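chain below, 232 aa
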Amino acid sequence: MTYTLDDLAQLVVNSGITTQRKEQLLEDFLLVAEKGVEMGLQGNNINFDLFTLRFGVKGVFNSANEPFTRPKHEVTASMSVGPDVRKAMLETMVENMGPAQHYAQMDTIINTVNGEVNKSLTSGQVLEVKGVNLALKGDDESVGIYIQEVGAADDTRIKATVVLNNEPKRLMFMVPGGLKLSSMYQLVHITQAGANTNRAIQLKAPRIEFSSKQLKCTDGTPDSGVERPGIL
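prediction:
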């Protein structure tokens, strides 16, 4: 998970250790940080206590009076952690959670009936998914690929029972029947596959990922606005 500066400021406010607003925390921090960068670019070493910052110049000067010119020369930066961070690192205990968790990325979703990409699905027909970390592996009964109506409860999702292709970069399955025509759906991917899906390493608990694309249930006709019974 990645935290932005805005996220961190909000966490500080939520913790109750300050009465300042998030916006004020950000403003104060940026004032100090930007002044540090300014002074560092003037040739000074900057010590922020938690880390140190130092700028330098990369490139060869062929004479004492040769000017700084890009791209031959460039400004570089180096950072290192301070004593407080090093102390925290030494005191940190690490728990082995099993193989690294790389979540499924469902980049391209193809309705094989009409060729539409990232737009639609059709009941009872084949859907092809391309991306990474797509392999469905594991002995947990929840492992599989599901169709869930956007905004509906998790217990309403429907599991695909016919999987035609199950590879890390390509998944093909039969869309379950009974979907509502013109409703919007998304895919739900659940697997125990570890970082290296070519090995028999499985996660202790299944991981779940929702597709970022929302798909309209159609009868298979491209851009069809006519509601006809889907193929079940």
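The chain is about 15% helix and 30% strand. Helices lie at 5-15, 22-40, 83-91.
thats it, cya
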